[in-house]
Amino acid sequence: MSSAGLARLTIGRQAAGLLAQITRQSLCTSLRLASTAAAAAKWSPSSVDLVNRLRDQQKHYATVVIKGRPFTVTQNDIIVMDRIKELELGDSLALNQVTELGSRDFTIKGQPFIDSSLFSVKATVIEHADGKLFTVTKKKRRTAHQKVTYHRNRHTMLRVSMIDVAKL
């Protein structure tokens, strides 16, 4: 994986206590991938420290991409999206295309996506709902011709069951 595709960790404005003692330079360092002879990927020690600080935060959010559309979600949020016919009620999904992962104090931004070994986002299909009824009226002038059709959009509803940052 190239260094351009790795995530960068930055600090938010509300950092306090121990986080305030960390120098700005170490917070803005990008996560670097160091390859070993066994082709196993390891993160640099400063990157491991910063990811573990994000893990210690209480609540996390993620911006996930599903069918080309971004959704910013937290745990127990409901995502209403276009129908996915292949899914059944109760199916569990692992959402791997995450562009941003963060908390109140820290954010990891992907370029374009975050490495999936850093997080776990899962969602469950809870409903296949129908949208509201649209009335489409077609009319021709100066004649009695009028045609009325109806249309409903179909939706799939997902509940985000887990957002977890991996411990490095």
TrEMBL record:
Signal peptide: none
Entry-linked InterPro entries: bL21-like, bL21-like_sf
Membrane-spanning intervals of the chain: none
GO CC field: mitochondrial large ribosomal subunit
GO molecular function, one term: structural constituent of ribosome
Pfam families: Ribosomal_L21p
SUPFAM superfamilies for this protein: L21p-like
Membership in a protein family: Belongs to the bacterial ribosomal protein bL21 family.
Stated name of the protein: Large ribosomal subunit protein bL21m
The organism of origin for this protein: Coemansia thaxteri
